[in-house]
């Protein structure tokens, strides 16, 4: 449909260009007739349909949609279990709690819970899951998403992104030079700390510099 509409619009543009160049009345009349026909056809085109069923689902949702950020997780040999707390979720019809799985992701949609819709998406799961073995369970005030592991092995975290950020953090403190590792740790504490923490670190920094200049301590902290 979209391609057909684009073609019509391109045809109309070309007719307009030809009109601008045409000098013979008969040719201009033919082009004007064609221009009106194309404009009418474009006007009568039905509006574009939503991209896919999921888009349609979301656009038809009434009320306010909330993204879920809080969850807990656990694992067994066969499953990764994600626990999402939602008050009163057990009162909803089962079809209003939907989970779509792919090999490396899942997304949850809870419709019309206390006048709101709730969504949660997990992309880039650490390892592949078996879509056909994955499911969701509705418990009191909780949705449990069960991702069936393709291989029975321990996951150190849930997503690839988490793994990468953990590795970066580990690399920052696993240095051969202990004072460098300490420096990185202090910088992190300083960056993430409140005013009180920053004052404490500044004070310690100044004192260590003073001691070093007096020759009390040899190590550069």
Automatic annotation (TrEMBL):
CDD domains from the UniProt entry: p23_CacyBP
Region Disordered, annotated ranges: 38-59
GO cellular component, one term: cytoplasm
Boundaries of every CS domain copy: 66-159
Alphabetic keyword roster: Acetylation, Cytoplasm, Nucleus, Phosphoprotein, Ubl conjugation pathway
Superkingdom of the source species: Eukaryota
Record field: compositional bias (Basic and acidic residues): 49-59
PANTHER family in alphabetical order: CALCYCLIN-BINDING PROTEIN, CALICYLIN BINDING PROTEIN
Name the record gives this protein: Calcyclin-binding protein
């Amino acid at each position: 449909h979209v391609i057909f509409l684009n073609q019509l619009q391109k045809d109309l543009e070309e007719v307009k260009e030809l009109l601008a160049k045409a000098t013979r009345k008969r040719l201009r009349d033919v082009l004007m007739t064609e221009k009106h026909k194309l404009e009418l056809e474009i006007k009568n085109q039905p509006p574009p349909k939503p991209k896919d069923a999921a888009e349609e689902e979301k656009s038809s949702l009434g009320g306010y949609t909330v993204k879920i950020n809080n969850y807990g997780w656990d694992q067994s040999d066969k499953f990764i279990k994600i626990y999402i707390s939602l008050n009163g979720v057990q009162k909803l019809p089962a079809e209003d709690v939907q989970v779509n799985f792919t090999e490396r992701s899942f997304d949850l949609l809870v419709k019309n819970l206390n006048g709101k819709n709730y969504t949660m998406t997990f992309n880039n799961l650490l390892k592949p899951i078996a879509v056909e073995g994955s499911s969701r369970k509705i418990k009191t005030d909780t949705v449990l998403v069960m991702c069936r592991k393709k291989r029975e092995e321990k996951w150190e975290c849930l997503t690839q992104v988490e793994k990468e950020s953990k590795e970066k953090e580990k690399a920052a403190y696993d240095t051969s030079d202990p004072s460098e590792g300490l420096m990185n740790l202090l910088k992190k504490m300083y960056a993430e700390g409140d005013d009180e923490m920053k004052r404490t670190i500044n004070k310690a920094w100044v004192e260590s510099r003073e001691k070093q200049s007096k020759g009390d301590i040899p190590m550069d902290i």
